[in-house]
């Protein structure tokens, strides 16, 4: 699943008329970079949620045939984004009964999605990265491939994770965050994870988008 329902307020005015995942870097939409990387890792069936200007995402990507994947959409309605937890919960019928991978449509990362797996008995497995300047205190601690809330060396959650549908047991339709569900699972010792040392960028502002564009064009 690719999360693409965010309003992108920090990216305004660029996102006033274009959904953030369709903003371009290196001559390509941010979400297209994600789709290509997912395809290389063996993922062919994708679910994309959307809200703000979501019809543009469907028009641009279609059913995914021209990209070599199959895309299904979970529409949340204009200006009615359900937050990360609520958005994933709404899409569960499209994701099936087994574990599924989730990533953000507005990040750029050179992580190999094939490297992440869910251990038996776990409800989630997260990819953690070094703390960027805008999240210097980090989110979670990683020790011996287990993720928890406490620890001296905290890392930033990349937005990439594998989740078991049971993580959402007892949830009700509507808007709610993902973090409380993850913290509850961590308290039960049911969240694994790994550290990604490579490139990861939360493309949340026009300045970061420009920096990514320069990086990709210089590497071309």
Please tell me how large the radius of gyration is.
17 Å
Instruction: Give the percentage of residues in beta strands.
Output: 25-35%
| Strand runs, count | 13
**Fourth-level CATH superfamily:** Spore Coat Polysaccharide Biosynthesis Protein SpsA, Chain A
End-to-end Cα distance:
28 Å
Number of DSSP helical runs: 5
Number of domains: 1
Give the rounded overall mean pLDDT: 93
Largest sheet: 9 strands, mixed
At CATH level 2, the architecture is: Alpha-Beta Complex
Form type: globular
Give, in order, the helices and strands.
Answer: EEEHEHEHEEEEEEHEEH
State the CATH class: Alpha Beta
Helix/strand-derived class? Answer: alpha/beta
Fraction of residues in helix = 25-40%
Unreliable residue stretches? none
Quick tags:
9-stranded mixed beta sheet, two-stranded antiparallel sheet, 220 residues, Spore Coat Polysaccharide Biosynthesis Protein SpsA, Chain A, 5 helices, alpha/beta
Describe the fold and architecture:
The protein has 5 helices and 13 strands. It is of the alpha/beta class. The chain has one domain: Alpha-Beta Complex (Spore Coat Polysaccharide Biosynthesis Protein SpsA, Chain A). Strands 1, 4, 5, 6, 8, 9, 10, 11 and 12 form a 9-stranded mixed β-sheet that branches. Strands 2-3 form a two-stranded antiparallel ribbon. Strand 4, helix 2 (54-61) and strand 5 form a beta-alpha-beta unit. The model has no long low-confidence stretch (mean pLDDT 93).
